[in-house]
């Protein structure tokens, strides 16, 4: 009996030690451990504010020594939104399409700032003749995701002419994939039309000889819609408003730096995209892409509502939502 008591006591001590080391279930961080803040973004030019903030250490400067930063890279909006909903990331940049689609199904997501505008370009594979909008019928097009920002812009543009995808009874065939792979897919003939975010549109032009058939300022919502927005969760806003404010402060610093120092920002972009995708963009490609994008922390709420109405018309959304409560611009004031 005595040996059994000693053994049980040992087990209890061992369990306490495990919990103290963070191995036991439900363990919290130990005293002195820094809180980690995770920011997500995509490797395209609409997300340059995150790249610049990362490179210049703006988040670290704003958040102070009590927190440590981590960055996660995403190829498309669906996986980004899953990460936000599960708490894998705390905030980050995403297209308004995925944010609105998830909000409409009950996701706890808030748009807290703008990041960029423009940057969506539609290109036709070399040899594919597009003389009028009617020529898009029956073609195979590719976008980063179903119902993503670029997809909605493209389909809205053509819906006005009565051309829709097979998803809603039309003739256009739709594929999805990573923009960095579009050039290869065009060369292989797997797709006819690429709806590409910058800088990949500029890369496609140079590498494949593809022709721009709908410019960034011609495609629907091209000049008004935020191409990327800063989002977080309502829970984060409620529980850590000071942290959210500091994230926004860093984001605003990054946007200002981009507009004041475009050449340096372009160098940061080339470096970051090479590190995250393995592809090194040429300076000329980035300069071309830069002409098709604007950077701002402001949010155009009406443009977002108009975009959502179109998403509903195209049946990406089941119900026609009101996104007024989705936008929280209080941290910008």
Description:
- Residues 36-261 form the Solute-binding protein family 3/N-terminal domain.
- GO terms for molecular function: ATPase-coupled transmembrane transporter activity.
- Belongs to the bacterial solute-binding protein SsuA/TauA family.
- The protein is α/β, with parallel strands linked by helices and 333 residues long.
- The protein has 2 domains: 36-118 and 224-332, Periplasmic binding protein-like II (D-Maltodextrin-Binding Protein, domain 2), CATH 3.40.190; 120-214, D-Maltodextrin-Binding Protein, domain 2, CATH 3.40.190.
- It is built from 13 helices and 11 strands.
- Strand 6, helix 6 (149-159) and strand 7 form a beta-alpha-beta unit.
- Helix 2 packs across helix 10, helix 10 (241-260) crosses helix 11 (262-277) and helix 11 (262-277) crosses helix 12.
- The model is unreliable at 1-31 (pLDDT under 50).
């Amino acid at each position: 009996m005595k040996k059994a008591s000693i053994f049980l006591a040992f087990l209890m001590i061992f369990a306490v030690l495990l919990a103290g080391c963070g191995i036991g279930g439900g363990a919290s961080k130990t005293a002195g451990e820094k809180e980690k803040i995770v920011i997500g973004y995509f490797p395209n030019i609409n997300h340059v504010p995150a790249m610049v903030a990362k490179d210049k250490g703006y988040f670290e400067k704003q958040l102070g020594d009590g927190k440590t930063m981590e960055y996660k890279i995403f190829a498309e909006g669906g996986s980004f939104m899953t990460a936000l909903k599960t708490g894998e990331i705390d905030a980050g940049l995403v297209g308004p399409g995925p944010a609105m689609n998830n909000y409409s199904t009950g996701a706890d997501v808030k748009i807290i700032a703008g990041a960029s505008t423009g940057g969506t370009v539609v290109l036709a594979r070399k040899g594919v003749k597009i003389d009028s909008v009617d020529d898009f019928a029956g073609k195979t097009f590719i976008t980063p995701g179903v119902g993503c920002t670029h997809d909605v812009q493209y389909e809205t543009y053509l819906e006005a002419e009565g051309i829709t995808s097979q998803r809603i009874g039309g003739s256009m065939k739709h594929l999805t994939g990573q923009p960095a792979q579009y050039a290869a897919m065009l060369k292989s003939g797997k797709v006819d039309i690429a709806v590409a975010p910058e800088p990949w549109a500029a890369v496609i032009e140079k590498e494949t000889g593809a022709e721009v058939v709908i410019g960034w300022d011609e495609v629907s919502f091209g000049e008004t819609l935020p191409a990327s927005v800063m989002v977080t969760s309502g829970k984060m806003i409620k529980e850590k408003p000071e942290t959210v404010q500091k994230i926004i402060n860093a984001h605003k610093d990054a946007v200002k730096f981009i507009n004041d120092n475009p050449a340096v920002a372009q160098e940061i972009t080339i470096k970051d995209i090479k590190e995250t995708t393995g592809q090194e963009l040429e300076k000329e490609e980035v300069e071309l892409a830069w002409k098709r994008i604007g950077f701002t922390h402001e949010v155009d709420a009406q443009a977002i509502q108009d975009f959502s109405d179109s998403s509903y018309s195209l049946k990406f959304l089941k119900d026609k939502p009101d996104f007024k409560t989705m936008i929280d611009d209080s941290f910008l004031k």
